[in-house]
């Protein structure tokens, strides 16, 4: 993947990690713009290449009464407004092959959810849009098996692909990141660490996913030290009342300190190469 080819991406030559960050789901225009404004200010100061993240819908929910979105077109238009307002690229996840062309009209990066990364028609449909494709590693997949997901994209004529690790299932209710997988997957494509989803505690009896947000700093630092190319962080100014994945999100007020520390650590890692 060539960062310089992503529209509106700034600081691509800074030799810093790149960042995918924003709320789990688009809940409305005001919240999306508020979160984006804060992250853009921080990433510009630290020269971090930044892509705004927000799901236009949430299809893989634990319960039928879980929040799924505010409407596809409405949410996608908000993502476009974020991009136009702050001059940044955007990423959203897609769940069906028919989503690919629709979402590609509004965003710059199409993300394949971890549960769906083996769905060939979905991956190929995303690749054929010509957009960057971010493949979430399945919680049930080995790092080595992600080679085949990447090949599905490149065989479709699209070299703009990256892999995001979001942990591997450990028992029923925990996720573990095996950092041995980072150098393995970097042979196939740039690697991103999804810090917040890696700290999820899924399959709770309540039907509401839990999390360990107090470990975000530890997980993110470990990812940078292990040599990841990018970091993925979901953040919100009111995680307790977020409509999706609030239990493992980073409070927006804590993002600047975290990114400042990660940038310093990245500079050290760069000197060790």
From TrEMBL:
Listed under GO cellular component are: cytoplasm
The yes or no answer to whether the keyword S-adenosyl-L-methionine is present is no
- SUPFAM superfamilies annotated for this entry? Aldolase (SSF51569)
Q: Where found in the cell?
A: Cytoplasm
| Residues in DAHP synthetase I/KDSA domain copies | 13-266
Cross-referenced Gene3D superfamilies: Aldolase class I (3.20.20.70)
**Which superkingdom, per the lineage?**
Bacteria
What are this entry's molecular-function GO terms? 3-deoxy-8-phosphooctulonate synthase activity
Q: Which UniProt keywords apply?
A: Cytoplasm, Transferase
Q: Which reaction does it catalyse?
A: D-arabinose 5-phosphate + phosphoenolpyruvate + H2O = 3-deoxy-alpha-D-manno-2-octulosonate-8-phosphate + phosphate
Question: EC number(s) per UniProt?
Answer: 2.5.1.55
- UniProt GO BP: lipopolysaccharide biosynthetic process
Question: What's the chief localization of this chain?
Answer: cytoplasm
Please give the InterPro entries that the UniProt record associates with this protein: Aldolase_TIM, DAHP1/KDSA, KDO8P_synthase
Task: Give the Pfam families listed for this entry.
Answer: DAHP_synth_1
Q: What pathway does the annotation place this protein in? A: Carbohydrate biosynthesis; 3-deoxy-D-manno-octulosonate biosynthesis; 3-deoxy-D-manno-octulosonate from D-ribulose 5-phosphate: step 2/3; Bacterial outer membrane biogenesis; lipopolysaccharide biosynthesis
Tell me which family the UniProt entry assigns to this protein. Belongs to the KdsA family.
Q: What is this protein called?
A: 3-deoxy-8-phosphooctulonate synthase
Q: Which organism is it from?
A: Pricia antarctica
